[in-house]
User: What shape does this take?
Amino acid sequence: LRVAQGIGLGGSWDGITMQLQNAAPAGRQGLYGMVPQLGGPIGFCVAASLFYVLTGFLTDEEFIQYGWRFAFFGVMAVNVVSLFARLRLLTTNFGAVQTSEGAPLTTLFKEQWRPILISTFMPLASYALLHMVTVFPLAYAWLYSKHEISDILLLQLIGGMLAVFSTIASGILSDMYGRPKTLGLCTLLIPVLCLSIPTLISHPWIYILFGFILLGLAHGQSSAIAPSRFEPKHRQAGVAMSTHLSWIFGAAFAPLVGLTLTAMFGIEAAALYLLSGAIVTGYVLYARYGSAAFRLGKS
Assistant: This one.
């Protein structure tokens, strides 16, 4: 099922970020490119609210017997809305915007391997952050703390709402200061979040809410920063490839590594995975843009 999910996710990347950037007025590319990223926090809020109701009003036996099925019914409803939006996009002139001429995959790797590497590792911190503020707190609460899962879900639901606003803020900040500076700011703030991870023991709202705000700022520009580095004929395939590779390297291992480090060395060690993502992103930003990516000021 994970293989099927990967095929579906990889095939569903249809270049909407590039289309929005092409359609954006001058000086608004960051704000327009941020719009598709809103699907992340909004979708998480839908999922968190659904599971908050299920875990809060059903017993463990009821949830295992039939409650878990409601989540799949909810996903089916979301897919209907998504299909309608995609079909509408295909039938409009906006959906006909040509963002890529297309090229064989072997040619893509041969000619564009360097932009793929840069675009894969530059937003790595945002993808590591995604799972470390969504999946990890739930797993930690279940295995190591006395906090109710429904309480953690409620905090994450509030955090997801905050992430919606911080995602919008990322578009505004990127138009004012540039996308590299926006990602640079988030990278510098991640070590502060790492220091707050022990609050999951007694005051989980500190880590969760701060983490979601930071997630919105970082995730809002994680895909918008990639297209300009690829040649036109490789742009859509190159961005799609690097985006999903970044997901794999940044997010796929986050819960497992975080929990393994917690089991071996304590919760403070879980922050090392998140910190490693920030180090990788910071290094690539510095190698590509120099110290300017970490200095405040107009782009």
